[in-house]
Design a protein that fits this description.
Helix content: under 10%
Shape: elongated
Number of strands: 53
Largest sheet: 7 strands, antiparallel
Length: 764
């Protein structure tokens, strides 16, 4: 948004403040004097005259990602935009660009557009001689050329077209359109289809050719690079920011913050009636011109001294901690504390608008980088004659870069008086502990592109850890206790784990039981289970246990790079004689009625039982609580019925009953039954935990061969048995298990193409 008064003076101010832009030759010097409003420039190198007369930039817009933004993916279409703002007469003006590897030129897309991206000339055809633009392939390399300005020729498509240094036209500032406040501001644009593979980096280059002082000159663009990656969205679970840019710009009780931010190439000013102007920024808690908090009232063209530029900008507050994220906070009243935000009036050329180096990050870890952005000018547009249109004009469009390579573009930030969050996921390298983050302004300045940004954050995408049991585990001395944890993560890289132990629940140390797991994708999350079983001693009582995970083994030892957000388990060990429960589960059966599971069990002498916990599993190994039923505590025994209303008859579902004692005696479990429709082939039951004998009941729907294997937790085969069974139920015993060590074992029973797994615990 350009100031609508004092155009002549602003023109010279613009010349002075851009003297050190990239256009200057390295090592050249200029001495600038401002005497009584008179501009005098003493040039020690002629290139500085050119630097003051022309501004160039090179950027792109991801057309495919539109308004919502995203990463650059294979198959996307981008529009390359080479900008020239000419403040002095320029002769022999033309542009040549090379179509780089990983891209494909889209025919007849070459054109000249305004800073708003509106077509001014073209599109030009691929064909030679019929207009000012041409696309041709020479030596297998595609190139585009457009001759610009009055008197420009129509180029041929031969090799000479891209080697000849004549054919360009003349641009007279503010005579040739598109006009913009004493200058001519135009953009050469064309479109590319992205053909590169994921993981590739594409590079863009282009050249403007011109003559401002009788000498032909070249300005070459070398865009650092754009990464081709699939968009992975944002974290569904993050527990805190590893980095917050400038602490969300902090807060204060003055409208304008005194301290600057890292905004390369921009100059900091305080918000006032006439600025920040193009290429300037402010840090403020209120975007009014004078501290007013009322966002109602007239906009331009009606003069309103409360709004910047007499009626143009919205009057808002920052975003941090707002009750409604899309609305943000109200503007801060004068003299009261309020959060600051970065307020940017974008420069004419595209380029960096924020930069910082992020340190102490974790290797091999996914991070979400995001920011909240708002377009604050709905009246800033101008037409090709430099007349105000009172429309939003140039829409902000930002790129996020890591180590100078673009990973994400925000898309156009439309004007709707709302904040939007834009971000992407970045994975650090195996040894990467810091990287540089840059926010670039992709769109041209002038006539719009006025925006605020806040809550620039880098957050770690943490996994969820779900412990079983979730609170307290009980055991008796000499009995095994089993702990398990379910690790659910947005990404599949938290594969390293360790069990930890603590005496006070605060200070933790490794138990030495560590390892890795390969997660599987379940309902959009990467999931794996970790179990540990050990025989308790009296000293274990009162200890806490938890699981810690990380992306690498080294990260497990780094408190900042490991995750230990599982609920800690408190272990109670009773140093008494824990005899077997007098209660006996006489039967446990199930059937399907009206597509619902009905569970039935009978117990003799349940006087010592407090309750029954009905447990459910989808794999026969990992069970969760489905419901609780209180014991009748009848010494003569009782029978119970439980209905699973969420039973899915299309799946095989496993059930068991946990008998919970009213005293310190360890809990016992029923056999496991499996229910399903005709897909149910095998039913397996066993006494669990087992000691000396392992008895199994297998039911098959037809005559056939059954394979039974017992595995230890490392996958080793302990026992292997194959039998030809008749239709119906068969009881059998797996021999030679009495000498097995205590711990967890997996019983795998297969019939035809159906396999059922049962997790068993061997007790001493």
């Amino acid at each position: 948004m350009k100031n609508y008064s004092g155009k002549f003076n602003l023109y010279f101010i613009e010349i002075v403040r851009k003297k050190n832009r990239k256009l200057s030759l390295s090592g050249s010097k200029a001495i600038i004097f401002l005497l009584s409003g008179i501009f005098i420039s003493i040039l020690l190198s002629p290139i500085h005259l050119f630097a003051q007369k022309i501004d160039f930039s090179y950027s792109y817009i991801n057309i495919t990602r539109g308004v919502g933004g995203g990463t650059l993916e294979q198959g996307d279409i981008i529009e390359v935009r080479a900008l020239a703002k000419l403040n002095a007469v320029t002769n022999n003006f033309y542009f040549i660009d090379t179509v780089r590897t990983g891209t494909q030129y889209l025919s007849n897309s070459l054109k000249i557009v305004t800073n708003e991206g509106l077509t001014y000339q073209g599109p030009f055809t691929n064909a030679p001689l019929d207009d000012r633009g041409v696309y041709a392939t020479t030596g297998g390399i595609g190139r585009v050329r457009v001759n610009i300005g009055t008197g420009a020729s129509n180029p041929d498509n031969g090799l000479a077209t891209f080697g000849v240094n004549t054919g360009g036209g003349t641009i007279i500032p503010f005579v040739n359109k598109p006009k913009f406040y004493g200058a001519t501001l135009l953009i050469v644009a064309y479109r590319l289809l992205i053909t590169a593979n994921y993981g590739d980096t594409i590079h863009l280059t282009g050249n403007f050719y011109f003559d401002t002082s009788g000498v032909n000159r070249t300005y070459r663009f070398d865009y650092p690079g754009i990464k081709i990656i699939q968009n992975q969205g944002l974290c569904t679970n993050f527990l805190g920011a590893s980095f917050t840019a400038d602490s969300s710009f902090k807060s204060g009780n003055t409208q304008n913050r005194a301290l600057p931010a890292i905004v390369p190439g921009y100059t900091k000013v305080n918000i006032n009636i006439s600025g920040p102007n193009d290429n300037y920024y402010a840090i403020a808690n209120n975007t009014s011109s004078n501290g007013t908090t009322n966002n109602a009232g007239p906009y331009a063209p009606t003069a309103n001294a409360n709004r910047v530029f007499n009626g143009y900008w919205d009057i808002i507050g920052d975003h941090t901690g707002s009750a409604s994220p899309v609305i943000g906070n109200p503007p801060t009243p004068a003299g009261q504390p309020g959060g600051y935000m970065l307020v940017v009036n974008a420069a004419y050329p595209a380029g960096e608008a924020f930069r910082d180096t992020i340190k102490n990050v974790c290797p091999n870890t996914y991070y979400e980088f995001s920011a909240w952005i708002r377009n604050i000018c709905g009246k800033c547009g101008t037409d090709s004659n430099s007349n105000a249109t009172y429309t939003p004009g140039v829409l902000p469009n930002l790129a996020y870069a890591i180590n100078d390579v673009d990973y994400f573009t925000t898309g156009n930030i439309t004007y709707n008086q709302q904040w939007v969050k834009r971000g992407f996921i970045y994975k650090t390298g195996l040894a990467e502990t810091q990287f540089r983050i840059t926010i670039k302004n992709n769109a041209a300045g002038g006539g719009g592109n006025d925006w605020v940004i806040d809550d620039i954050k880098l957050a770690t995408c943490y996994p969820n850890l779900v412990m079983n049991p979730s609170d307290t585990a009980t055991s008796c001395v000499g009995y095994p206790v089993n702990l398990s944890d379910t690790v659910k993560s947005f990404f599949n890289n938290y594969t390293n784990w360790c069990w930890e132990k603590s005496s006070d629940g605060i200070n933790w140390g490794s138990t030495g039981v560590c390892g890795t797991r390969t997660p599987t994708l379940v309902n959009g999350l990467w999931v794996y289970f970790v179990d540990t079983t050990f025989t308790t001693v009296a000293a274990d009582s009162g200890k806490y246990y938890r699981l810690k995970v990380a992306t690498t083994g080294t990260n497990l030892t780094n408190v900042n790079c490991s995750v230990d957000n599982s609920q800690k388990i408190f272990l109670k060990v009773f140093n008494v004689s824990c005899s077997v429960l007098d209660s006996k589960l006489i039967s446990f059966t199930g059937n399907i009625l009206n597509e619902k599971a009905t569970l039935k069990w009978s117990v003799s002498n349940e006087g010592g039982l407090r309750e029954y916990e009905i447990q459910k599993s989808i794999d026969g190994i990992h069970f969760t609580r489905l419901g609780i039923m209180n014991s009748n505590k009848d010494v003569n025994g009782s029978s119970y019925v439980f209905y699973d209303a969420e039973f899915n008859p299309n799946w095989v579902t496993y059930y068991r009953i946990r008998l919970i004692s009213a005293t310190n005696i360890p809990d016992t479990y029923s056999k496991i039954i499996a229910l399903g429709n005709k897909n149910l082939i095998v039913k397996v039951s066993t006494v669990n935990p087992f000691k000396n004998n392992l008895k199994i009941e297998v039911t098959v729907p037809e005559d056939g061969k059954v394979s039974i294997r017992l595995y230890d937790i490392y996958g080793g085969i302990i026992a292997n048995k194959k039998m030809q069974l008749l239709k119906g139920a068969t009881k059998m015993e797996l021999e030679n298990v009495n000498n097995l060590s205590s711990g967890i074992y997996i019983l795998r029973t297969s019939f035809n193409d159906i396999t059922i797994k049962n997790k068993l615990i061997k007790a001493d």
